[in-house]
């Protein structure tokens, strides 16, 4: 079964940019007949949405580059190297990477997405005989629990009081839903625990008994420093500019400012440890641990080459979101049609399950928690209220659906693949197996919760 899935993905899954183009065309072709939109309307929705993810694309590029730069700091590399020396067999390595990645993603998705693959890459550089594709797939598979974790955007939005919550849900949620009813609900925690255990066991069992596809460990060594970043003193006496480039004091001062802001923002202002906070933590830790400004610039320059996929593809997914959410003269959008189709066949028991499946389908076209909230919140919470379904369960079902099909949606894998220097087709065959296993667990968990 594993060989079949791997071969299937290798044969049919194109490069992620091609996949984004195909999804764009599919969304456009569906919107015209289903939503009675003209080609001009669809094109306008697409073009109007192309730049809606610019801020988020910049955040994703920075979390990739700053995370990679931090990991290349000597003291961090030493720590990761020590942890990577723990597993002595390929199976143990796969299990450890899966568990570490999943727990890190549950704590914070941006942190976990980067740390997991960096940890996996370090293990690959130390342990012979481990399948590199499966190792990176295992690091990425932990991402499936992110939206049921402490950084889940939909549960956190539901827990935030204010007019925005009421407006987004068309007046259904006038009071915030505490995280005790979503993220920290015992049913949700049970699903998370079972999913983590299941993917850890599944990934370990998937390791080839014979002829694993390993990587030349020499290829995982960092490249040499780029030329032209600075010039060494030719006469043995550094210039004032060179002294500033090598000044640890400058690095310490700017890092201190960054840490001071995070302490005030998180500890005294009640700010959330969101993606922006993760980036700042990566950035200023990196500046501090690299020692000098010039050392950080060089490491940052090497890491920045991996952000090309994000810069290219995110505008296309923003355009797809524009098509899915765009309302033409008919007064309906494709996202609404898909959501209403699920509602029409729901009962109080099956509603969370169908909400989850609806979100999973939409996630293939709109791989964004914020996008899901904009599309489904006005519809799903109203329908759930009419059926007597707890809003915490409705929101959690949407969140799980948004996270589940990320296992086969290359959008979120782009940063991990850039660090690992692999293509999506190299890991998605293994992730397809994880998709099937976790899908059964999540569906069963939501049904039990609803009953």
* Arithmetic mean pLDDT: 87
Number of helices in the DSSP assignment: 22
Structural class: mainly alpha
Count of DSSP E strands?
0
Most strands sheet: none
Please state the overall shape, judged from the principal axes of the Cα atoms.
globular
Helix content bin: 55-70%
How many domains? The number is 1
Can you tell me the residue ranges where pLDDT is under 50 for at least 5 consecutive residues? 224-229
**Distance between the terminal alpha carbons, to the nearest Å?**
33 Å
SS strand fraction:
under 5%
Q: Rg from C-alpha positions?
A: 23 Å
Task: Describe this entry's structure for a reader.
The protein is mainly α and 451 residues long. It has one domain (2-218, 247-450). The chain is 70% helix and 0% strand. It has helices at residues 2-12, 16-34, 39-49, 54-71, 74-84, 90-107, 109-126, 132-141, 153-158, 163-168, 186-205, 240-245, 248-268, 275-290, 293-304, 308-325, 334-344, 351-365, 369-387, 391-404, 414-420, 424-450. Helix 17 (334-344) packs parallel to helix 19 (369-387) and helix 19 packs antiparallel against helix 20 (391-404). The longest helix is centred in the last third of the chain and has 27 residues, at 424-450. The chain is globular and about 75 Å long. 48% of the residues are buried. Residues 224-229 have low confidence and may be disordered.
């Amino acid at each position: 079964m594993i060989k079949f899935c791997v071969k299937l993905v290798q044969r049919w899954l194109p490069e992620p940019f091609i996949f984004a183009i195909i999804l764009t065309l599919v969304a456009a072709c569906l919107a015209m007949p289903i939503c009675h939109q003209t080609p001009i309307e669809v094109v306008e929705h697409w073009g109007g949405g192309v730049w809606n993810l610019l801020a988020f694309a910049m955040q994703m590029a920075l979390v990739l580059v700053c995370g990679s730069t931090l990991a290349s700091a000597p003291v961090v590399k030493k720590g990761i190297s020590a942890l990577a020396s723990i597993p002595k067999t390929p199976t143990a390595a796969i299990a450890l990477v899966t568990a570490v990645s999943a727990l890190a993603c549950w704590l914070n998705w941006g942190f976990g997405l980067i740390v997991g693959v960096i940890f996996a890459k370090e293990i690959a550089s130390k342990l012979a005989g481990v399948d590199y594709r499966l190792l990176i797939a295992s690091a990425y598979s932990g991402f499936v629990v992110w939206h049921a974790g402490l950084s889940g955007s939909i549960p956190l939005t539901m827990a935030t009081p204010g007019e925005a919550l009421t407006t987004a849900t068309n007046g259904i949620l006038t009071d915030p839903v505490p995280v005790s009813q979503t993220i920290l609900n015992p049913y949700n925690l049970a699903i998370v625990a079972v999913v983590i255990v299941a993917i850890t066991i599944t990934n370990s069992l998937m390791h080839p008994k014979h002829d694993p596809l390993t990587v030349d460990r020499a290829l995982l060594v960092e490249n040499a420093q780029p030329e032209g970043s600075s010039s060494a003193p030719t006469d043995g006496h550094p210039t004032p500019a060179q002294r500033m480039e090598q000044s640890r004091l400058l690095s310490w001062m700017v890092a201190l400012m960054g840490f001071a802001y995070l302490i005030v923002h998180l500890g005294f202002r009640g700010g959330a440890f969101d993606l922006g906070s993760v980036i700042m933590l990566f950035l200023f830790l990196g500046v501090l641990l690299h020692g000098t400004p010039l050392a950080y610039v060089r490491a940052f320059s090497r890491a920045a080459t991996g952000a090309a996929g994000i810069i290219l593809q995110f505008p296309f997914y923003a355009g797809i979101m524009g098509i899915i959410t765009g309302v033409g003269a008919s007064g309906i959008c494709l996202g609404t049609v898909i959501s209403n189709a699920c509602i029409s066949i729901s009962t109080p028991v099956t509603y969370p399950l169908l909400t989850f499946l609806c979100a999973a389908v939409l996630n293939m076209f709109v791989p964004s928690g914020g996008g899901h909230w904009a599309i489904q919140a006005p519809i799903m919470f109203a329908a759930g209220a009419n059926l007597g379904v707890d809003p915490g369960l409705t929101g959690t079902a949407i969140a799980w659906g948004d996270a589940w099909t990320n296992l086969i949606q290359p959008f979120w894998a782009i940063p991990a693949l850039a660090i690992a220097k692999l293509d999506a087709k190299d890991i998605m065959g293994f992730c397809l197996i994880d998709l099937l296993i976790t899908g059964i667990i999540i569906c069963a968990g939501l049904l039990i919760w609803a009953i």
